[in-house]
């Protein structure tokens, strides 16, 4: 029987695993691979690689499952992107980009190490407890085959764990009655979310949209006149994460306290190496 998890152990593990999954979104390797199949627009590439596991879906499905993008931006590229490259072609290009990105960021020794193989085994074991019910992005990726190479198997498991938690998080946002941009504004106000510049540059929202969302949040008592979280806003963000933890507990409870601790250690090491290699753009996180 697995021992009980320490408080927030699952969240700490997620926070170590998830960013390595995300590295390919910022990678020149992804841009190169997508351009090679005819998809040169950055937004079109993002929508395609993340949605491809669901098949040639329309804009409505992407907006619903991605949550915080302006639907007008999504509709500009979806479903048109599938006329450029099929989901199967996109998934193959994504796999090549992930492979190249991890090789560049971590180096061949790390990819061939026993630590990488162990991380893959632990992460995949955690995914055994994930359920497809009401988890569309997780369920779509869970139907994809597990790669043979340990580093790609680890990345695949990280993707499953990321999308599983993300699907649950959207349910929590809906219950809190935060619309897509309000969710982004409050997350940015914590200092842990994307900066306004990055939100407006990647999610399709305008400054007017941002200001209107800020005003709605002020009217609910969640932001103050300076755009900072009030006590109520801080409590709401804390509750959002707690409720998300509750919906995300199954894979980590299945792995057990010792497994979670070890996976967090391994994932943290890989993440630090990726960050040191310049995996993420400067200025992406913060309030300014």
From TrEMBL:
* Pfam families linked: HTH_67
Which InterPro entries does the record associate with it?
A: HTH_67
- Name of the protein described by the UniProt record: SalK
């Amino acid at each position: 029987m697995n021992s009980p998890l320490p408080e927030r152990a699952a969240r700490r593990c997620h926070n170590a695993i998830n960013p390595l999954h995300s590295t390919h979104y910022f990678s020149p390797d992804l841009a190169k691979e997508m351009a090679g199949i005819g998809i040169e627009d950055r937004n079109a590439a993002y929508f395609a690689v993340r949605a491809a596991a669901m098949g040639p879906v329309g804009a409505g499905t992407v907006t619903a499952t991605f949550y915080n993008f302006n639907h007008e931006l999504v509709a500009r590229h979806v479903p048109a992107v599938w006329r450029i490259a099929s989901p199967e072609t996109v998934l193959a290009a994504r796999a090549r980009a992930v492979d190249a990105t991890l090789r560049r960021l971590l180096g061949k020794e790390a990819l061939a190490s026993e630590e990488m193989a162990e991380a893959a085994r632990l992460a995949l074991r955690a995914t055994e407890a994930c359920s497809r019910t009401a988890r569309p992005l997780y369920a779509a990726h869970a139907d994809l085959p597990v790669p043979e190479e340990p580093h790609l198997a680890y990345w695949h498991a990280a993707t499953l764990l990321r999308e599983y938690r993300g699907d649950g998080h959207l349910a929590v946002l809906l219950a809190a009655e935060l619309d897509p941009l309000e969710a982004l504004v409050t997350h940015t106000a914590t200092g842990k979310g994307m900066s306004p510049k990055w939100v407006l540059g990647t999610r399709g929202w305008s400054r007017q949209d941002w200001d209107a969302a800020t005003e709605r949040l002020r009217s609910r008592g969640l932001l103050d006149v300076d755009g900072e979280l009030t006590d109520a806003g801080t409590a709401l963000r804390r509750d959002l994460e707690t409720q998300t933890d509750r919906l995300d507990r199954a894979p980590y409870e299945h792995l057990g306290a010792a497994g979670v601790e070890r996976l967090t250690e391994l994932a943290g090491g890989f993440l630090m190496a990726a960050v040191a290699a310049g995996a993420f753009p400067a200025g992406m996180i913060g309030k300014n």
